[in-house]
Amino acid sequence: MAKAQNTRHNAAVPASVHAAINSGKKALDQGRFDDAVRAFRKAASLAPAQGPIHYALGVALIKADRPAEAIDSLRVARDMAPQDFDAQLALADAFYLAGHHAHALPEYLRAGSLRPDHASAWSNAGALFREAGRPELALTALQRALTLEPMNASALCNSALALHDLGEFAAARDHVELALHARPDYPEAKWNRALLDLLHGDFARGWAGHEFRTVQLAKLGGLRSFPQQRWNGERFDGKRLLLWPEQGMGDQLQFARFLPRVKALGGTVVLGCNRGLVSLFKANFPDADEVVVVGELFPQVDLQLPLMSVPHALRLRETLDANAVPYIRPHGNASSTLEHALPKLTAGHPRALRVGIAWAGQPKHLNDRNRSLTLETLRPLLNVPGVQWFSLQKGDVAEAQLEPFNALSAQQALPAIAPLGPQFLDFNDTAHAVSRLDVVISVDTSVAHMAGAMGVPVWLLIPFVPDWRWQVTRADSPWYPSARLFRQTQPSEWGPVVERVANVLEELGRVSARSLAGSRAA
Question: 20, 29, 112, 416: most buried by Cβ count inside 10 Å?
Fold first, then answer.
């Protein structure tokens, strides 16, 4: 982050401007940032041609946690002095802190060109290249930073992430260990090391390091907080414990399996979840005394813990409770609109395999560009004979692909994909649909976790660099016995993956047909 420079002014500047500048500098030194903003804003209005005043105003706004407001002032300061490194770096910082990362990247690169010996400019540029999905360019920028400062913890941590994105896990671990050697209290580096541990199945150390995720999630604005004491895994007789969701629906489906272990330690278990999971969780988890929607009012609790922290609190190490599967089942009836669609799953095609697909996850997911694909990418699957296809996809963007996709399929005499997703009112409807399928084919999204938790065969399409829970080489999952993993062998290349899935699906269809024929002959 750029430091405030001394504002330069000359004798021609009125005394009132000098007074405002001095007032602003004093306020900055004392940490009264809003007062500093008011003083420098006054000075800038009285002497608008003084670039250093605009710079000082921008820095004060950043320190007052108002980076979006700082951008205009810092842009003025930079344009008045295009070779001023401090103004240039502060402008890049303002864009970054305001969340405008695409604008921040070229500004950091320009700062690096003004001061090639400034490590943080290159480190920040590298971090943003990596965020934009350009790990090779990220490593180039980060190497410049590390050449200048070999033990720059931030650059080492960012290079570990870029190496991870390239599948160079051993080198990534080396860099994150160096980052922790340079800065032992670096929480982001501890979290990154934990992700590598979990990715490689070292749950004993991974769960402990995974607790440091809260630092990064809080920075991203995606972490709730509760005033109650954090539960440490001990007995809590006579108390009320809230287990709350911090991330997506799939995480909630995956980690809810540990509820019986929690309930065994006494007290009242209050399970928080997203609204779409409430009825499903109430029906499937009797160990949850109450199921509430987090974000809405619910009765007072005494203790709290994020659901994904349960394995660490209970010191489960490698115990993943896969023997609990299936622990999710649909209850009651599906919604009336879905019930009208569901009979199509079994009527008219006694030899057809019933296959559901989900091709896209939540667009806001940080790794969505790697895990999601287009429906068109899956078109080769429609050439497999003897299959009825059903879309389990939710979301306007993904659902919008289905109608034109089916229209083109009709022109090519290929089967249509029946759209079940728009009929889902909640995840109980999803469970009803999944329960009537032979196979679910899905990218890494909540539908895959649903099928896995239900014990339904689920074939996951895994990107070249997977999420930690799918590990690195195995074709099965320690979480879901019914899961089969089909992995990319090259980044962004889904074609070979889809071809392998099609071959396995065709063989499954032949086996199913022989089984049906044999049962009829008998």
Answer: 112
